[in-house]
Amino acid sequence: MNTEVDEKKIKNNANLFVQKKALIAFTFFSMFFGAGNLIFAPFLGAQAGTATPLAMVGFIISAVGLPVLGVIAVSTAGGFDQLTGRVSKSFAIVLGLVIMITIGPGFALPRTASTSYDAAIVPFLPDSIPAWLPRLIYSLVFFALAYIIALKPASLTKVIGRFMAPILLTLIAVMFVASLFVHHAAIMQPNGDYAHNQLTQGFFDGYQTMDLIAALYFGIIISANLRNMGVNDPAQNSKEVGFAGLRAGVTLAIVYAMLSFIGVISNSIQPIDVSTATGATVLTNLTTAVFGSFGTALLGLIFVIACFNVCVGLISTCSAYFSEKFPKIGSFTCDYRAWSIIVTVVSFVISNAGLSTIIKVSVPLLVALYPISVVLVILGLLHKVFCSRFEKVYFWTVLFTSIVSVLQCISSFLALASVEITGLNEVLQALPFAQQSFGWLVPAIVGVIIGVVTSVASKKQQ
User: Fold this and answer.
1) CA geometry: angle at 239 spanning 234 and 244, to 5°?
2) Which among 43, 233, 255, 433 would be 20 to 30 A from 270, CA to CA?
């Protein structure tokens, strides 16, 4: 009798832990999947047309594969600081701070409010209302609610994983099912950026989601959730974070595939002008054709939920980072709650300053960060089999990659001000694969070679 009871308890506990793992995966998915992710895949489908499957392969490799590998690399290393510290302690601090500002109050957080406002509120506003007032009210409510939920980062799964993520997935599924049955013309041939080289273009569009940068730090919040569930052993916790990333990646791939199909059907119903339209236009065309004005409201709700999920996750991630690295500012003590307030308030202010300006200023910085992040992830994944034997590889590879990335960033910033340094652009464009945005690749390889040589030379001297 006791044996049967024990077996039932073990089975119930196993089922409970499976449910918790699913919640963790949903939470991870929601933290990644914001408005930017929502509009890239439909725009891809609208342009790629009959070649959408091929384009989606490239897109999923960079938009899903790289972020998941980033989560695995960080969790395997034992954390962001452990991975970046292999380059140097100073590098870990600087890179961490730049990433946090970029994915936090400097760019991504303000964008969550601005983008969802434009999609959910603007279509229903009368022209007589001043544009700034409803935006101010909306962003105030949006960030206030996000702040309240983010105050307990270890409990995010209870709100995001259990409620918000399933709602978001359900709404996307509704659009997908509708696209299966709506009457439409023949699927169009590839056009726009996808007229040629669909696989490569899909990869570059996925590259632009910049989820890899966020992946380097989102593991912190997932790790806290796992500890809250009783997974306290560091090795097991790191392992579960990696598995959560894989599950979230599979979910992302499925959702992206559905959204790209929606884009294909939408463009066959109402072709877009690729020079002026966006992924939001593609989605609006479909929902309006199928559901009328209700479709516009449905799409707005999807944007709000997607943006809100990411907003909560980013507030938690940034506040956890800043409270750990900067527990005091002068004589003031800044704990997690204090930093949550600072991050939320700054994001609220910037979100009302104009999204287009934020994007213009932030994109060069994002372009600089991404190659460095890719290199770090690759080195981290190869640590046991290669880099641990040639430790200087980290320093030299990241150094050469950073030089090219920072110069590209400077060039882009100067271009915004219509300023050009003579010869700089010519040098950058002369690098192999520069036309494909991979100008950093050959310098990174050179860094690996120098790192191996210097590591061997250093060991011989010892």
Assistant:
1) 125
2) 255
Q: How much is the mean pLDDT over the chain?
A: 84
Quote the Cα angle for 251-147-26, to 5°.
Answer: 15
Q: Whole-angstrom Cα distance, residue 172 to residue 153? A: 26
Distance CA 309, CA 321 (A): 19
Tokens of 399: 């150094």
Q: Could you tell me if 305 and 119 are in contact, meaning their C-beta atoms sit under 8 angstroms apart?
A: no
C-alpha 453/C-alpha 451 separation (Å) is 6
Sign of the Cα torsion 288, 292, 297, 299 reads negative
Here the tokens at position 39 are 């509009």
Three-state DSSP at 217 gives helix
Query: Residue 125: what are its φ and ψ, rounded to 5°?
Result: -90, 135
Q: What is the residue whose two structure tokens read 């200023």?
A: 361
Answer for the pair 85, 226: CB distance below 8 angstroms, yes or no: no
> Residue with structure tokens 């990333």?
245
Could you tell me how far CA 225 lies from the centroid of its own chain?
19
Question: What is the SS3 assignment for 328?
Answer: strand
Tens digits of per-residue pLDDT, 206-224?
Answer: 877 778 887 877 766 677 7
- Residue range 94-103, pLDDT digits in tens: 998 988 888 8
Which residues fall within 8 angstroms of residue 360, CB to CB, at 6 or more apart? 416
User: Quick one: DSSP state of residue 329?
Assistant: E
pLDDT in tens, 271-330: 888 777 778 788 888 888 888 888 888 888 888 888 887 888 889 888 988 998 899 887
Widest CA span in the chain: 84
Entry pTM: 0.80
Query: Under DSSP, is residue 326 helix (H, G, I), strand (E, B) or coil?
Result: coil
Cβ neighbours of 396 (radius 10 Å): 22
Q: What is the pLDDT of residues 48-60, one digit of tens each?
A: 999 999 999 999 9
Q: What is the DSSP letter of 384?
A: T
| Residue 343 CA from chain centroid, whole number | 18
Q: Are 180 and 263 in contact (CB under 8 A)?
A: no
CB atoms within 10 A of CB 432: 12
Q: Which residues pair with 92 in a beta bridge?
A: none
Q: What is the mean pLDDT of residues 110-127?
A: 83
Compute the residue count for the chain: 462
Rg (CA), the chain: 23
| Per-residue exposure over 341-375, b if at least 16 CB sit within 10 Å of its own CB, e if not | ebbbebbbebbbeebeebeeebbbbbbbbbbbbbb
Residues 220 and 321: their CA atoms lie apart, in Å, by: 9
